[in-house]
Amino acid sequence: MSPTLNDYLILSAILFAIGTAGVFLRRNLITILLSIEIMLNAVNLSFVAFGRSFGTADGQIIVFFVMTVAAAEAAVGLAIVIGLFRHRESLNPDTFTSLKW
Amino acid sequence: MLLLIPLFPLVGFLLNASFGRRLSKGVSGTIACASIILSFAVSAAAVARLVGMPADEREIAQTAFTWITSGDLSVGLTLRLDPLSSVMILVITGIGSLIHIYSTAYMHEERDPEYARYFSYLNLFASFMLVLVLGSSFLVMFVGWEGVGLCSYLLIGFWYQKKSASDAGKKAFIVNRIGDWGFILGVLLIFTRFGTLDFQDLARAVSQLSPEQTFGTLSFITLFLFIGATGKSAQIPLFVWLPDAMEGPTPVSALIHAATMVTAGVYMIGRNAVLFGHAPLTLNIVAVIGTATALVAGTIGLVQNDIKKVLAYSTVSQLGYMFLAMGVGAYAAGIFHLYTHAFFKALLFLGSGAVIHALAGEQDMRKMGGLKKDLPITYWTFVIGAIAIAGVPPLAGFYSKDEILFKSFSSGHTWLWAVGLLTALLTACYMFRLVFMTFHGPSHHGNHEHSEHHENPGHHLHDAPLPMAIPLVVLAVGSIAAGWVGIGGRFEKFLEPSFGEPVASVTPAVEHSGSAETLLMLVSVAVAVAGIGLAFYFFLKNRPAADRMAQTFSGPHRVLENKYYLDEIYDAAVVQPVQIVSQDGLWKGVDVGVIDRLVNGVAQFVGGTSEILRLFQTGSVRAYAASVFFGVVLVLGYYLWR
User: Tell me: the pLDDT tens digits for B482-509?
Assistant: First the structure.
């Protein structure tokens, strides 16, 4: 029995929930970045699933765009994290509150 | 060619104003003198060309560029030379040159930058004054009109570290502004009524009308213009600034507050003779105000003890004469007096400057006396000036003053003539009081606080140095001879084209009936001599008699000494109310109570709201992420379950 579209979407939702929980709950910037990647890939999964279900290539094309953006985001995000770490010797996002008025 | 006349002093001003700090006194003085002398040379050439023309076509005009074009209005920066302005430019540049030369010595003790600043102002003044008299329309004239007011302010307050000097500058400026308000209203009225600001077009338009016998537009226009004239030319009720203007350096008093700027109002009325001629009611006001000013200022001058104050009141009084002449329609006589007055009043001021210079700044006549021996050049030139202003023939003042008195008598203003005659008596009297107190009698200087100045053996009384003596002598010659051009009415004929056709109903044809004129002339000479005699008796022969007189009439004497309490009255009637309204009403009421509270209220509202809003700004990245997430969820949820 091959998985149906619904199964893919449920998996995607689960992955997305895991990613979201990671962003909210973890106190390590790198982990948070990883969680964001999970969220993005959850979305990618549903795109591909929809594409296969409808029999078009649109979903896969969008996924390529998401992956390029994700790669760029990861590069910039990691660079910022390194910069922040050099400043504060910490990866806890709660220590970076100096933008607060 | 005409453009060069105001341009030379302007260049001198720019040079001294830009580089004055780095120039030595010699250089900046030379620049200033050269520019005004060049301007004089060009003026003389231009006037020579003008005189060479046929009498009816004497006019040179030059447009530099079109200044304003807007709808129907087109104003060019046009200069126009006609007989009236030719007299003015010769006086301004000629006497101006002498005073510049005089100043190089008088201001010698100033530091270099101050010296250059002084000369730059002086040049700027000459430039503006020339624009004023050469301008062919009200707008161009107004540029000069305001410009000379500014220079007057700058020069009165030249020694701005001295509180009284800076106060006097402000007073002059503010009082002049009141006059300018009237002037502007007059100009605007002219524009709305006639649609032109050019003097010639205006004169043509006005001459189509018949003279106004009741109070109408023309009367209002002329009255407003006259308010402007009272401000600039120091007439009642706006003359209070001129005596205070004596805080400026003495050559400035000579140039601006005696010979040139204060005559701007007289010139302006002469320039618009046709307009004023069509408003006989205003002319009457002009004549009465002029006469009243002459008398009031003359009486005050009689009891002042500051040498420059006496001359200042004398100036106000003589300006009153000029307005009397204008008011009775004797424009040429008024301008003639302006011209002769420029010589002897400049001479008297420069002479008083030489005295003050010799006494190291002393201005109180009671501390002078007996200076005749020490200052022979100053003394003799001063006496010539005093005789000239007193009106003794054949010196300059006699011709012009006699002309004015004759014209006011023959045009039927007998009362004004009588007051004018009384003023002539006063003039002779206070001028010779000044001469006797300063140059004759026992010496009073050097025995009071000035003794310390005299410890230096090199600093004894010195007569005017050469750059001061030359202008004195030239002006003395002028004071003697300047009146001769008017013999036989030549001066009048020369000026006539500038004043247009006389309005028959206003100025009855004056018959120069020989016998009446001779009689009046004898009367005015007798009055002048009597005035000198009175001064001789009271202030030289029998000094205690003067003090006894002062004691007998102590009431009037005190009133005169306090200048009719005019400053106090103005203070109580105008200055105090304005200050109270400004301070308690406008400042503490409107500004603090309304405007400030409004502005502060807005700020407080924004501040208070922000106090609440800032709580959302936690700075925690995860909180932001959560709010974004739940926001998206809410929006999506709304669309899904709608």
Answer: 888 888 788 888 888 888 766 544 444 4
Per the structure block, which two tokens stand in for B291? 């006469």
Cβ proximity of B120 and B107 under 8 Å: no
| Cα dihedral across residues B457, B462, B465, B468: positive or negative | positive
- Residue whose token pair is 């600043």: B117
Amino acid identity, position B21: R
Q: Is A1 on the interface with B (CB under 8 A)?
A: no
Residues 6+ apart with CB under 8 A from B9: B35, B36, B39, B123, B124, B126, B127, B130
- The reply to whether ipTM tops 0.90 is no
Q: Could you tell me the pTM of the whole model?
A: 0.80
Interface of A with B in 32-71 (CB under 8 A): 32
Structure tokens at B328: 């009775």
Whose structure tokens read 């750059």? Answer: B467
- Tell me the nearest-neighbour CA distance from A29 into chain B, angstroms: 10
User: Between A and B, how many CB-CB pairs are < 8 A?
Assistant: 27
**Pure H helices in B440-489:** 466-481
Q: At what angle do helices B25-52 and B4-19 cross, to 10 degrees?
A: 170
| Tens digit of each residue's pLDDT (9 = 90 or more) over B2-54 | 899 999 999 999 999 999 888 888 899 999 999 999 999 999 999 999 998 88
Of B618, B619, B629, the CB nearest to A20: B629
For A32, name the nearest residue in chain B, comparing CA atoms only. Answer: B622
Neighbours of B99 (CB within 10 A): 30
- CA B112 to chain CA centroid, Å, is 27
Residues 6+ apart with CB under 8 A from B183: B142, B145, B224, B225, B227, B228, B229, B231
Q: Which of A7, A10, A77, A5 is nearest to A37 (CA)?
A: A77
CA dihedral B272, B274, B280, B283 (to 10 degrees): 30
Exposure on the CB side of residue B605, measured as CA atoms within 13 A: 6
Query: Alpha-carbon distance B175 to B171, whole Å?
Result: 6
Q: Where are the alpha helices (DSSP H) in B233-306?
A: 241-244, 250-254, 264-271, 273-277, 280-303
Q: Do B263 and B338 contact (CB within 8 A), yes or no?
A: yes
Within a 10 A sphere around the Cβ of B137, how many other Cβ atoms? Answer: 21
Domains in chain A, ordered, with CATH? 5-96 (1.10.287.3510)
Residue B166 makes CB contacts below 8 A (sequence gap 6+) with B157, B160
| Coil vs helix vs strand at B69 | strand
